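Narrative summary of target 7.
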Amino acid sequence: RNMYKSKEENQVLVLLSPNYFLKMVWSHKQKMKGIFTENICETFDSFIMRVLDKQLHRAATLAVIGLDTYTREKGLYSPVKRPKNSESNRVEDSESWVSRELGLTCADLDEVQVALQLQTHTTVWFLDDWQQFADHVATLTKAIARCPFKKQTEKMTFSFCPDGTWSTGVKVDKDGKGLLKLWKKQLQQLNRITQPVAMAIAQAYPAPKLLLRAYRQCTSEWEKQNLVSEVKVYAAGKRVDRRVGPDISRRLYIFMTSENSDIVLDKSG
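Modeled conformation, tokenized:
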């Protein structure tokens, strides 16, 4: 009998050619200027969404091999730097040209890396050759393989951690009394979830298991992300014209369903 089970991980590794990567950097730069170029080359946003199959809880890593070699061989690279700043009399290394043909500098690459990390939780590897790529793949595979063991270790209880209590002081009796209060406290750990918002969500879904069940019953990713957005919020015991909203709803969905412990819930940082 086969005792092994397969599981699709949330980590996605994508190999990009230097040419295609630079074109998407150029497209990102044009987008920041308000110029849309998706008919010429897709943007990073559309590319990541396509790669992740619109599943935002997954995390992508882009690997670009031989970017420096490519730009030099194609004659795109020039070590020309920005003139010295008249006030500081320093040369800005970040303004070194990566591609004069596309008008891209090192600063543009840095900007794209930061934007990808904050907006889509995507990291970029710039590798010299295939050996470096193989080493990184081996490291990533090893880290993923160790995740189940680490999770099992984290579930182990300790003798100095008494049952039925929590660090915030919420006591849970053996009959379950206090669980609702604990659920509200847990919701308030998320940024910008106030006590009235937490109470409204807990009233709609009195337990985390009920919220997870509701997510599973949704038929689309959009429906899951906006599940609690229309939940009305009470203030001073009265229902006011205020709702949880799509941003909190999206962050709560990611928080409840993502298995990536490093994911950034706030896109704005």
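Strands lie at 11-16, 59-65, 97-99, 104-105, 123-127, 232-235, 238-243.
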